[in-house]
Write a structure and sequence with these properties.
Layout lengths: L1 H20 L5 E6 L3 E3 L9 E10 L4 E12 L2 E11 L8 E11 L3 E8 L5 E8 L1
Parallel strand pairs: 5-7
Antiparallel strand pairs: 1-5, 2-3, 3-6, 4-5, 7-8
């Protein structure tokens, strides 16, 4: 009996880190895909450039967090959309989202915007800055 109690306590102690990672109320960030991008026109080299992205979260545990913008060079830019996912009970319906993404100041010319999805696919849009 003593061995059973000791082994049960040992098993619970080893399992606590697993339960701690999945505790209700905690959240983690994941890269999400987007469905469409609206690229407005009329930007010049003094403007703060922005686009509007939209998509669908798979359930109510997802919430928009941010967009990570990587400037590969002066005219090529990669954008990753990031969502915070809460662990726990969620409403299981598709949730549409639409967010404005600030890209910063661009130099004059034709820019390539590549919106990366988490599965290796992307949406590519062109933007002219005067």
């Amino acid at each position: 009996m003593k061995a059973f109690v000791v082994s049960t306590i040992a098993a619970l102690l080893f399992a606590l880190p697993v339960f701690a990672e999945q505790a209700p109320g905690s959240s983690k960030e994941v890269q999400i895909g987007i469905n469409n991008v609206y690229v407005p026109g009329g930007f010049d080299s003094g403007s703060d450039v922005f686009v509007v992205v939209n998509g669908i979260f798979p359930n109510g545990c997802y919430k928009w967090s941010r967009a990570d913008v990587t400037n590969k060079d002066a005219f090529t830019h990669e954008i990753k959309s990031i969502a915070a996912v809460n662990q726990g009970m969620c409403i299981m319906v598709l949730i549409p989202f639409q967010k404005e993404v600030q890209l910063g100041k661009f130099s004059a010319g034709k820019h390539t915007l590549r919106f990366l999805n988490g599965d290796g696919t992307y949406i590519e849009k062109l933007m002219d800055v005067e």
